[in-house]
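Open question from group meeting: does this chain pack into something compact, or does most of it stay loose? Before anyone orders reagents, we agreed to write out a predicted structure and look at it together. Recording both the input and the output here so the notebook holds the full record.
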Amino acid sequence: MYKVQDDKCIFLWGFKIAFGGQRSTGFGVIYDNLNAAKKSLAKHLLIREGLAEKKNNLSRKARKERKNKVKKVRGGKKVEVKQGKASKKK
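Structure tokens returned:
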């Protein structure tokens, strides 16, 4: 239907099936090149297609625990706690 040089320039997402099958609806976009896609497409879609790297962040719970631990210490030890280098209390 559409003439595309590279199949990686086609992005599909958000499909929903109708009850009983036979019809699906979803979203799709076709870009001229991959650079145009990287500029305007959402980051999670680029990660799913393998065009971007996912940040390796801490889990939500770990971030909150670290935040609360930082609030309990004072001075230069805050930096150690933020970096995860704090020594445990004995």
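Observations to bring back to the group:
The chain has a mean pLDDT of 86.
The first helix runs from residue 34 to 40.
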